Amino acid sequence: MANKRFSLCFLFLLALLPSQISAADESEGREFVLTLDHSNFSQTVSNHNFIVVEFYAPWCGHCMKLAPEYEKAASILSSHDPPIPLAKVDASAENNKELANGFEVQGFPTIKILRNGGTLVQDYKGPREADGIVDYVKKQSGPATIEIKSADDASAFTSENKVVVVGVFPKFSGEEFENFTALAEKLRSEYDFAHTLDAKHLSRGESSVTGPVVRLFKPFDELFVDFQDFHVEALEKFVEESSVPIVTVFNNDPNNHPFVSKFFDNPHIKAMMFINLTADTADSFKSKYHETAEQYRQHGISFLLGDVEASKGAFQYFGLKEDQVPLIVIQDNDGKKFLKTNLEPDHIATWLEAYKDGNIEPYRKSEPIPEVNNEPVKVVVAESLQDIVFNSGKNVLLEFYAPWCGHCKKLAPTLDEVAVSYQSNPDVIIAKLDATANDIPRETFEVQGYPTLYFRSASGKLTQYDGNRTKEDIIDFIEKNRDKPDQQEQVKDEL
Ligand SMILES: *[C@@H]1O[C@H](CO)[C@@H](O)[C@H](O)[C@H]1NC(C)=O
Ligand SMILES: *[C@@H]1O[C@H](CO)[C@@H](O)[C@H](O)[C@H]1NC(C)=O
Ligand SMILES: *[C@@H]1O[C@H](CO)[C@@H](O)[C@H](O)[C@H]1NC(C)=O
Ligand SMILES: *[C@@H]1O[C@H](CO)[C@@H](O)[C@H](O)[C@H]1NC(C)=O
């Protein structure tokens, strides 16, 4: 589940990343990034109070792009006082897989910050270019919360476009202060924390506020909120909840990306409206959407507003087209999707209500049913899956493929041959479905890689084919598993 959410978010952000992969810098001389593997990882990590570790795979494009930046950052941080080490582990190497699994590495690159000889592990959530890495890592290696002593300190600290949490205390001791510091340690990778003795340093601060009080600044909605319960758990909940915008904005502004990640990480139902944010009509959509969001967010729905210019990845993922904009798509926790296209501002609230009342039919991404389908391997799309695979009464071998997948291309001529050899047998269908352009019923088919082959016998027995991808083996399998017409009668009689 977590994995699926990650990949969805990743798809959104992917559209923003520069597509070209810069060639890795073949810098001469010393390498500053430490190379670690299963043989020396624990030993090295236990010697450091603070170390950054990248888990990468040699073939991963984002890793290649990161490499020269990471190396540059390592060289800068090596002259920090004290030096801050950056390391890397090839997580794809067989010997290192157990190590990577121990850190729940699910995608590449995964970067972790290890403290205290490796006893505390935290995700790296910073930028991926050298200067950004240096700033982020420096801050992570320093104190979790910094003192604000002047208005200048405060404006330097809060002017950035992110969530910052400031504790106002009459003195820097006592349980409230300790609890605040403990929370800062825990959440330091996600938020900036500071503490002060004097609330008047803060923008919008009043000298009458003596604390202890926690003031959370955010670049959206009501701009700041105060909180006075210093139980660690209550504080954490307050920070997590107050830092989520009523409507998360997704556009080309990287400052918004942490909020987009948070949007996809939360367990709520996700409503996403895509409009042209630079068009004249945007404001009326925005205000109606905001109203609706305020009304429905108590019902476990989170809201995102996406600019169509930035949403190519999302449109591909959901099978949407630009001429359907403005639109809203909802994805619920079962993976069901609901779609309203060519929206008008006044539709927003009524459509949401209809959705909540269960009056909207789920939306399924599908290519159009092909008008001509007379190649040996039949084309199946989401809209024709029921008819061809489930209701045809035929034995069907179905390939789930992706157009870019090399193994699928390799399999294609073999499948063709298999199909040709069954052409005179009307009881057997060989078919393929482009799984990137059509939604698959996930409760029936488990498709985790391409190609995935399923066989459904005429009587309804579903089996995944994981044999060798040769003509002989596939035909062998079909022959073993298919129902012959007379058998089928028998099965029917038994039912
Ligand atoms: C860890 O071991 C690998 C493989 O033997 C080696 O290439 C690497 O330099 C070692 N790293 C350290 C920090 O000793
Ligand atoms: C600090 O947090 C702990 C753990 O939640 C709690 O038991 C304690 O009461 C808190 N102290 C204050 C002053 O809120
Ligand atoms: C969005 O609107 C602006 C201003 O009307 C227009 O120039 C732009 O082409 C539109 N973008 C799309 C993707 O429709
Ligand atoms: C696939 O082929 C390999 C080598 O050709 C063979 O060892 C293996 O048993 C085959 N697997 C199946 C399921 O037929």
3D architecture notes:
The protein is of the alpha/beta class and 495 residues long. It has four domains: 16-141, Glutaredoxin, CATH 3.40.30.10; 145-242, Glutaredoxin, CATH 3.40.30.10; 247-356, Glutaredoxin; 378-494, 3-Layer(aba) Sandwich (Glutaredoxin), CATH 3.40.30.10. It is 34% helix and 20% strand. It is built from 16 helices and 20 strands. It has helices at residues 2-14, 41-46, 61-77, 97-102, 130-141, 151-158, 175-187, 232-242, 257-265, 282-296, 312-318, 347-356, 385-390, 406-421, 471-481, 485-494; strands at residues 34-36, 50-56, 86-90, 110-115, 120-123, 145-148, 164-168, 192-196, 213-217, 224-227, 247-250, 269-275, 301-307, 327-331, 337-340, 378-379, 395-401, 428-434, 452-456, 462-465. The strands form four sheets. Strands 1-3-2-4-5 form a five-stranded mixed beta sheet. Helix 7 links the parallel strand 7 and strand 8 (192-196). The chain is globular, with a radius of gyration of 28 Å. The two termini are 37 Å apart. 30% of the residues are buried. Residues 1-6 and 15-28 have low confidence and may be disordered. Bound molecules: 2-acetamido-2-deoxy-beta-D-glucopyranose (4 copies). The site of one 2-acetamido-2-deoxy-beta-D-glucopyranose (NAG) has 7 residues, from strand 1.
